[in-house]
Design brief:
Elements: H1 8-29, H2 44-56, H3 60-76, H4 80-93, H5 98-114, H6 117-130, H7 134-140, H8 148-162, H9 167-183, E1 190-193, H10 200-209, H11 218-224, E2 229-235, E3 245-252, H12 259-262, E4 277-285, H13 296-310, E5 316-319, H14 326-335, H15 344-354, H16 368-374, H17 382-402, H18 413-420, E6 424-429, H19 436-442, E7 446-450, H20 456-466, H21 473-476
Helix pairs in contact: 1-3, 2-3, 2-4, 4-9, 5-6, 7-9, 8-9, 15-17
C-alpha cells in the first residue's frame, strides 16, 4: 500500500491551497522571499519581522490569514535544517516575557490581598495574558487556513522528534499540546464507520496508518471491511479525511485466539447476526502529533454502544492484542539470570529440542532459552515450539501482571491502555501471531483483554488507584 504517512501529498496540497493567499501577503508586505531553504543567518531578521507582523495583526482577518499562509508556505519550502532554525527562532524570540510576567504576578498578589473584586479580575486577566507565550498565538493563527489544523498536528510530530536534541523544541511541542487538548475535546469528535464505499483517499490513509497488523494489499483491506467486520474511526471537523484513531472489529463466535484466522481473506464469510463476540483486533492512533491526547478509551466505549445497538446478540466484547514489550523484557531478564524462567524439566526438554538428529543434548543453562529464541525458525519446529510454550507463557503472564513502570502502572503500553480503561486480562494465546513482527515483539504470544461492562468501572478504579490488574484465573494460574 502507498505510505501516506510521508508528507509529500499533504505538503503539495497545502502549498497549492495556500499559494494564492501567500502571494497576496508577499505583495502586501513587500517582503522578499527567504534566500536559502536552510534559513541562513541573513534570512532570520526578515523571518522575525514577518512573525511580528502576524502578531500585530494589522489589516483585519483577511490580512492575518494571508500572512499565516505566507509563513506556512515559507515553512513548507524549508529543508529540515531550515525548519529547525525556524522553530528555534519561534521558541527563543517569542517566548514568555518573564519580567513582564513577574510584574503581573506582583500586581495580582496585591489585588488578592486587597480583596477588591474588580481589581482582582483585572489583575488575573493581565497575569493570564502575560503567561501566554506569543508563539502560541502565532501557531493558533494557522487554524484559520484550509488544512491548517493538520499542518499544526504534523508540526508537533516533528517537534517531538527534535526535542531529543533541543529542549526548546519540547517547549513548543508542549504549547501545541495545550492547544490540542482544547481543540480535540471529545465533544467535537465524530465517530464514523468506514466501509468499502468510503472515499479511496481515506481508505488509502487507513491502510498506511495501520500500526498493528500491516495491510498487505487491497484484498486484505477489503476483507477487513466486509459484512462480518466493522471499522470505526474518530474524525475532527477540521480534518474530515484524516482519522485521529481507528479500531478494527471482527464479529465472531467465542474469543479469537489467532490473528491469522481473523485476517485470512480466503476464510468463509461469517454471519454477523449469529455472532456473540466482538473482537477488537487493532487499535491505531493515526496522528503522531496528537500523542498524549487520549481518545482510545472513549472510542472503545462508543463502538461497544454502537455494536450493541446494531447486534443485540453480542454478549462479549474483547480484544486480541499484541504484547509489544514482552520480548525485550524477557531478554533483559535472561541476561540478569532471572529465576523462574525455566523449571528443571523444561531446561532438559528445551536442550533436547535444540539438539540435532542423533546429537547428544547439551547441558542446559541460563543461555538455553536465549539460544532457542535466537533463530525465528523455532516457530516452525514442533518439538522446539512445544518445549517453549510453558516457560514463555508463564514468563508472559509474569510480564503482564507483575512488570511495572516507576509510577506503578503496567510496563507494557498496550496492557496499560486496556487496564486503565477497565478491561481484564482474560487469556494468553500461544502462537497467535507468527509474523516477523509478532515473533520479534512477543515471541508470537497475544492476549485477550475482556471488557465486561458491569466490571469496567471497578476495574478502572482498582488499577488507577492501586495498580491492581484485573485478571482471569486461567492467566493467574500460569504463575
Amino acid at each position: 500500500m502507498t505510505d501516506v504517512r510521508t508528507p509529500q501529498r499533504f505538503v503539495a496540497r497545502l502549498k497549492q491551497a495556500w499559494r494564492g493567499l501567500s502571494t497576496g501577503a508577499m505583495a502586501a508586505v513587500g517582503a522578499p522571499r527567504i534566500a536559502s531553504p536552510d534559513l541562513v543567518d541573513a534570512d532570520l531578521p526578515q523571518l522575525r519581522a514577518r512573525l511580528l507582523d502576524c502578531l500585530v495583526g494589522r489589516g483585519g482577518e483577511a490580512s492575518a490569514r494571508a500572512r499565516a499562509a505566507e509563513l506556512g508556505q515559507t515553512y513548507l519550502g524549508l529543508s529540515v535544517a531550515g525548519r529547525k532554525r525556524f522553530m528555534q527562532l519561534l521558541a527563543s524570540d517569542f517566548d514568555i516575557d518573564r519580567a513582564a510576567a513577574a510584574d503581573a504576578a506582583a500586581h495580582a498578589l496585591k489585588a488578592w490581598q486587597s480583596g477588591e473584586a474588580k481589581s482582582v479580575r483585572k489583575a488575573e486577566a493581565a497575569l493570564r495574558a502575560a503567561l501566554e507565550p506569543p508563539r502560541a498565538r502565532l501557531l493558533a493563527q494557522f487554524t484559520a487556513m484550509g488544512e491548517g489544523v493538520k499542518f499544526l498536528v504534523d508540526r508537533r510530530a516533528e517537534l517531538a522528534e527534535w526535542a531529543k536534541e533541543d529542549p526548546a523544541f519540547a517547549a513548543l511541542a508542549s504549547d501545541l499540546h495545550e492547544l490540542f487538548a482544547a481543540w480535540f475535546d471529545l465533544g467535537f469528535l465524530e465517530l464514523r464507520r468506514i466501509t468499502w464505499e468510503s472515499p479511496a483517499a481515506l481508505l488509502e490513509r487507513l491502510a498506511a496508518y495501520e500500526a498493528v497488523h500491516a495491510v498487505r494489499d487491497w484484498a486484505d483491506l477489503k476483507n477487513r471491511l466486509d459484512s462480518d467486520r466493522r471499522y470505526f474511526a474518530f474524525f475532527h471537523p477540521r480534518m474530515p479525511l484524516e482519522p485521529l484513531i481507528f479500531v478494527e472489529v471482527a464479529l465472531v463466535k467465542g474469543l479469537a485466539g489467532n490473528v491469522h484466522d481473523l485476517l485470512d481473506d480466503k476464510a468463509p464469510l461469517g454471519d454477523p447476526k449469529a455472532a456473540d463476540t466482538a473482537i477488537f483486533y487493532s487499535i491505531t492512533n493515526a496522528q503522531r502529533g496528537l500523542a498524549g491526547i487520549s481518545f482510545g478509551g472513549f472510542l472503545i466505549k462508543r463502538v461497544v454502544e454502537t455494536l450493541k445497538a446494531e447486534f443485540p446478540n453480542l454478549k462479549t466484547f474483547a480484544t486480541l492484542s499484541p504484547i509489544p514489550g514482552f520480548r525485550s523484557w524477557l531478554e533483559a531478564r535472561i541476561a540478569e539470570g532471572m529465576p523462574r524462567l525455566l523449571l528443571a524439566e523444561e531446561r532438559k526438554a528445551l536442550a533436547a529440542a535444540l539438539a540435532g538428529p542423533g546429537e547428544k543434548p547439551a547441558s542446559a543453562n541460563k543461555g538455553t532459552l536465549k539460544r532457542a529464541l535466537a533463530d525465528a525458525s523455532w516457530i516452525d519446529k514442533p518439538a522446539l515450539r512445544a518445549a517453549l510454550q510453558a516457560p514463555l507463557s508463564r514468563a508472559c503472564a509474569q510480564y503482564l501482571l507483575e512488570a511495572k513502570r516507576s509510577d506503578g502502572n503496567a510496563l507494557d503500553p498496550v496492557a496499560h491502555f486496556h487496564l486503565s480503561n477497565g478491561a481484564r486480562v482474560e487469556r494468553l494465546n500461544w502462537c497467535a501471531d507468527r509474523s516477523a513482527k509478532g515473533l520479534k515483539q512477543s515471541a508470537g504470544l497475544m492476549v485477550n483483554y475482556l471488557y465486561r461492562l458491569s466490571d469496567i468501572e471497578a476495574n478502572h478504579e482498582a488499577y488507577a488507584s492501586e495498580g491492581t490488574v484485573a485478571v482471569a484465573s486461567g492467566v493467574r494460574g500460569l504463575l
